[in-house]
Amino acid sequence: MASTLAEKVWAAHVVRQAPGEPDLLYVDLHLVHEVTSAQAFDGLRLAGRSVRRPDLTLATEDHNVPTTDIDKPIADPVSALQVDALRRNCAEFGVPIFSLGDVEQGIVHVVGPQLGLTQPGMIVVCGDSHTSTHGAFGALAFGMGTSEVEHVLATQTLPLKPFRTMAVTINGTLPADTTAKDLILAIIARIGTGGGQGYVIEYRGPAIEALSMEARMTICNMSIEAGARAGMIAPDQTTYDYLEGRAHAPKGADWDAALAYWSTLRTDADAKFDHEVVIEASELAPFVTWGTNPGQGAPLSANVPDPKDFADANDRLAAERALVYMGLIAGTPLREVEIQTVFLGSCTNGRIEDLRAAAAVIQGHKVADGVRMLVVPGSVRVRIAAEAEGLDKVFVEAGAEWRQAGCSMCLGMNPDQLVAGERSASTSNRNFEGRQGAGGRTHLVSPQVAAASAVVGRLASPADLG
Amino acid sequence: MEKFTVHEGRCVPLQRSNVDTDQIIPAVYLKRITRNGYEDGLFQAWRQDPDFVLNRPEFAGASILVAGQEFGTGSSREHAVWALQNYGFKVILSSRFADIFRGNSGKGGLLTAQVTQDVIEVLWSMILADPTLVLKVDLVARDISAGDFRAPFEVDDYVRWRLLEGLDDIGITLQQDAAIADFEVGRPRFLPQVVPIQQ
Lengths: 466, 199
What we know:
The structure holds two protein chains of two kinds. By secondary structure, chain A is an alpha/beta fold. Chain A has helices at residues 5-11, 38-47, 77-93, 108-114, 146-155, 180-191, 206-209, 213-221, 237-243, 252-262, 313-326, 346-349, 352-362, 380-388, 391-398, 447-456, and strands at 14-16, 23-26, 29-33, 57-60, 97-98, 123-126, 140-143, 157-160, 164-171, 199-204, 230-232, 275-280, 287-289, 297-299, 341-344, 372-375, 401-402, 423-426, 441-444. The radius of gyration of chain A is 21 Å and the shape is globular. In chain B, helix 3 (99-108) links the parallel strand 3 and strand 4 (111-114). Chain B has helices at residues 21-24, 79-87, 99-108, 117-129, 157-165, 169-174, 177-185; strands at 6-14, 64-67, 91-94, 111-114, 134-138, 143-146, 149-152. Chain B has seven helices and seven strands; from the N terminus they run E-H-E-H-E-H-E-H-E-E-E-H-H-H. Classes of the chains: A alpha/beta, B alpha/beta. Chains A and B meet through helix 2, helix 3, helix 5, helix 10 and helix 11 of A and helix 3, helix 6 and helix 7 of B.
């Protein structure tokens, strides 16, 4: 029977199937971080259980860690306790961990791919909704809660009801000034924050095939923001080229065997998706959010929308609330919105290509007076690579702060936060109320728009720099 | 896990859509390593407003949250479920729940009962008209009722069975240990293992 990519990966991992019960799926890679794991390890301890496959489990410290002074003890005692709990749990249960100061430390969704641990056809899970990132390799990758973390630790499996499948096809070619971030923000605005609920999205079409692996990760990363548990892109030569030679990629005969398998991982021509969306890439442009959920976005060239123009009563109410929270007036051109902070980083846009793109925009310019710009590499490896290329100097000379690796200002649980009323242009993934710090106001943007906005002091694209 | 069959309680009308888990519990509360005591962080930012529905005395002690659509979007934090439970909620009603939140709720014994948006709107007006209204949530019959009002709700069959029986997932899966071991034998050898990096 003809199947989609998601269905093929699912079928290859079924340990047990029984009528009326969820399928029991085997997990190939379980990523762990400090925030969603402590209670899970506690559960194991209370029940006298062990970690079934520590060799398929990897922990890193990312959410809670500072991005300055990492050679000193963590200043916040509660954060320090949580990080320490992860270290003790990993030692007790034999789980490999990349701690602060380790050359492999970084955001869990940056670390897995750069080590070659994320490969096509795998099932990858983590107690983190942005696990969808790994779907860029043709893996089925999704986030889960702490109870499920405990379940995977104990059994290396997860009981799951099958997802429905959605194809998001991007035809044509993206305009030169339009990035993967703009594309995914436009997709979310189109299908809505709940539109992907219950689905695995497969992104396909010529505009997707033309993207680099890092750009594909940006797309799959934000699948959750459309409500989808996972996003996937079929592996192709771009995927194989990225993987070949990485530390954990297969070698020799294993590489040949893997390649033969990976080449079967695509949706059959006559397979049926439960839902299909088609978008024309050439109609897209730099895209930013104006509201307090990732679906509330518009082209940078547009104005802040008028809630009265929303047909649906709930959307209208949500827009009214969002404008109040964001301190925006309907009809204001988005290019006139002043920002005080720029955050470049996160599992969405904290990779080397993102830093290169932003550096190319900001080179020769200065961060505007009254604006602070944080540049936070997604991992220590990304930081080292950027420094080897001199990107750190470009940012520092422009007046930006060059930080250590971590989740940083994406989620406001480490020291990098907005204060109430402060407005950011952020390359992260969520513009929820208070996400970057209580009362903070977030506009989600691409790395290029972030860099241009830092220079202008208002939401801007590289074209505005002249 | 405690068994769940029927719950009767008063309701809080949360007339907002897209309530994400960052609103339910902000990230600063996620540094703790316990499963309890998160009630102080529940809707922390919104509770700063004295008029916020949870601060209104007529809704004190309610155990059923009647929310707008797309409840529980965003971050996978199970702390959102713990915060709602620690505060005293047993049931959340919405016309649409985010996947991960709904899954987490089922694991922890918090019932996410899905009803139509029309039912939500009716409930909101009933509760606002009479905050002392007691709603009966019957997981066996899969319906909610109060006086003459009655409406069905949707809940996954398997989740319902687990809640009714009070079963723990890990215990169920560990009965399949032989099947898991069999599966492991057949995994391709090219798949990666996490071992110290040689570079």
